[in-house]
Amino acid sequence: MALNHLLRPLLCQSLLRQVRSPLVATSRVSAPPLWPNTTCYPSACIRLYATKKSKAKAKGQSAKVNINSALVEDIISLDEVKGEMTAVLNALKDDFTRNLSIRTSPGALDHIVVTTQDGKFPLNQLGQISMKSPQFIMVNMSSFPEAIKAAIHALKESSMNLNPEVDGTIIKVPVPKVTREHRETLVKLAKQLSNKAKDSLRRVRSNAVTQVKKAKEVHSEDTIRLVEKQIQQLSDNIAVDIDKQLAAKTKELLG
């Protein structure tokens, strides 16, 4: 009786450990008909559970495609597609530099385009721009006095929050102090420019995919699918770069 009293708790603990363990299970089964009147113990079956983190990682990843562009030149020029997509990114960088600068310099007005009766011209081609102080820029319009009114309009319509004044053929441009409100306005403009860039990127991708689909009659579906996947991959990479540019510009503007 004393021995049973001591062994019973140990036996219960052993059974509980086997029931609670999800990884290993051992069972006693009957042997197949080829070996009657015998029993066997199969090897322990191990069951591995994927963690939520590994599942999410596997879900977010897809196989990368790297097609030799020379092999699909008769379908589409992947180099040209990549070039057009890269041009969208470069145009965004240029817009950010020209339109969203909070640093005061004579070159800060160079990007401003003035619309005249003879066409559109950069302000620095119509007038001589000089900085008298960090808060004051002058534009000498003596070479094209007829464009003064158009230049004033272009300065007021810029994203730099300018209020120019005219003194003869001289345009005086006081540079306002950059406020928090103005910084936030520029951030909103940066988002608008990045969204326009993504729209342009989608058009490039859509045009490329349309061109690829025209080759279905002479190429296998697998080949067409791989080329489309390569185009999508190129587009995704540029979209990531656009987001990086926006994040960097937002950080710069907000200080």
UniProtKB/TrEMBL annotation:
- Keywords recorded for this protein, A-Z: Mitochondrion, Protein biosynthesis, Transit peptide
Query: Which GO BP terms apply?
Result: translation
SUPFAM superfamilies membership: Ribosome recycling factor, RRF
Query: What positions does the domain Ribosome recycling factor occupy?
Result: 92-254
Query: Any idea where this protein resides?
Result: Mitochondrion
Any one GO CC term of the record: mitochondrion
> Recorded GO terms, molecular function?
ribosomal large subunit binding
Q: Is Oxidoreductase given among the entry's keywords?
A: no
Chief place where the protein resides: mitochondrion
* Family to which the UniProt record says this protein belongs: Belongs to the RRF family.
Q: What is this protein called?
A: Ribosome-recycling factor, mitochondrial
Q: What is the lineage of its organism?
A: Eukaryota, Metazoa, Chordata, Craniata, Vertebrata
By which gene is this protein encoded?
mrrf
